[in-house]
């Protein structure tokens, strides 16, 4: 059995949080930008945004921390897909301090 086959066999047993952490580790192993999230100078102050949009990860995380569900977020941001939210949550897990700081600075502004 290959490593990939072993990993695939474990997926059904993993929680969403564990899958997000695994996703973050796999994405980090490529030593490239975070999949689905981009930082573009001059766009939203260069903060992490969902690719194809100008929606900052911090905005989605702040709403999630206020109790909004993925369903509500997708209804209010029709350009987003489920995968975009998964990417945002995984980015937050990987860069929690960065996003928490952005949320704090945004609230103070």
Please provide a written account of the structure.
Helix 2 crosses helix 5 and helix 5 (82-94) crosses helix 6. This protein has helices at residues 3-10, 16-28, 57-65, 70-76, 82-94, 96-108, and strands spanning 37-38, 49-50. Strands 1-2 form a two-stranded antiparallel sheet. The mean pLDDT is 89. The protein has 109 residues and is mainly alpha-helical. It has a domain at 57-109: Arc Repressor Mutant, subunit A (Orthogonal Bundle). 58% of the residues lie in helices and 4% in strands. The protein is built from 6 helices and 2 strands; from the N terminus they run H-H-E-E-H-H-H-H.
Descriptive tags:
109 residues; two-stranded antiparallel sheet; mainly alpha
Ends distance? 54 Å
Annotated CATH homologous superfamily of the domain at 57-109: Winged helix-like DNA-binding domain superfamily/Winged helix DNA-binding domain
The helix/strand class is mainly alpha
**In percent, how helical is the residue content?**
55-70%
Largest sheet: 2 strands, antiparallel
Task: Give the percentage of residues in beta strands.
Answer: under 5%
> Regions with pLDDT < 50 over 5+ consecutive residues?
none
CATH architecture descriptor name of the domain at 57-109: Orthogonal Bundle
Order of helices and strands: HHEEHHHH
Shape: globular
Q: How many beta-strand segments? A: 2
- Write down the overall mean pLDDT: 89
Task: List the SSEs and their pairings.
Layout: H1 3-10, H2 16-28, E1 37-38, E2 49-50, H3 57-65, H4 70-76, H5 82-94, H6 96-108
Antiparallel strand pairs: 1-2
């Amino acid at each position: 059995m290959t490593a990939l086959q072993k990993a695939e066999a474990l997926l059904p047993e993993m929680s969403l949080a564990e899958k997000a952490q695994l996703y973050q580790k796999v994405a980090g192993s490529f030593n490239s930008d975070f999949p689905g999230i981009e930082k573009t100078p001059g766009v939203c102050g260069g903060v992490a945004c969902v690719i194809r949009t100008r929606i900052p990860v911090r905005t989605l995380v702040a709403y999630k921390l206020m109790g909004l569900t993925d369903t509500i977020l997708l209804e209010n941001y029709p350009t987003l897909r489920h995968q975009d939210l998964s990417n945002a949550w995984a980015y937050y897990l990987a860069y929690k301090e960065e996003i928490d700081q952005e949320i704090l600075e945004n609230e103070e502004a």
